[in-house]
Amino acid sequence: MEQLYSSIGSLARQMLGNFTRRTRQDGTPYWDLREDVDWQHQVVMEAWGNRMLCAEAYNTAFKLLLEIYIASNEEEAEEFLYEIEPYSEVRDLTGWLNSAPEHVEYLTEVLQADPPRDGREALARAHWLFLQDAGERLLKAIKHCMEREEALQEVEVQEAV
Predict the structure, then answer these.
(1) DSSP code of residue 86
(2) What does the alpha-carbon distance between residue 14 and residue 86 come to, in Å, rounded to a whole number?
(3) What Cα–Cα distance (Å) separates residue 142 from each residue in 19, 101, 116, 147?
(4) Which residues contact 111 (CB under 8 A, 6 or more apart)?
(5) Torsion sign, CA atoms 83, 122, 124, 142
(6) pLDDT over 90 for what percent of the chain?
(7) Of residues 87, 82, 41, 75, the one with CA closest to residue 61
(8) Model confidence, pTM
(9) What is the pLDDT of residues 91-123, one digit of tens each?
């Protein structure tokens, strides 16, 4: 990273600038990083819960970054993330559910807490819970990234003196 990021939003904007739309073999679009930037992959991996990265991990990171790119601080970012909308299409919801076995836990939590009206609502609420957890991990990863960069900047300044 060449510059010191002044806010969570500025780092999110930097990452969003590196995302590109790609197409799966079945014709469905997804988001991925255009250039192979290690720290950006690390942020996505931490948001994904340090599991094997897949197309859904990058879709999720993109969706979360779109919510926080104008945030000036962590509190604002948390407020934006709380308002995030889950997927609405059954195809997207079942794709998310199928992307990792751990996602069934979110569905189970929804079914046990307050029975939904139908399957679509159950999946949407489960996806929203997942987005809250992933958003929390994303913010933590962004803060770690900013702290690492700040520490590197301090070392460079001390070495220059």
Answers:
(1) P
(2) 24
(3) 16, 26, 34, 9
(4) 122
(5) positive
(6) 65
(7) 41
(8) 0.85
(9) 999 999 998 899 999 999 999 998 899 999 999
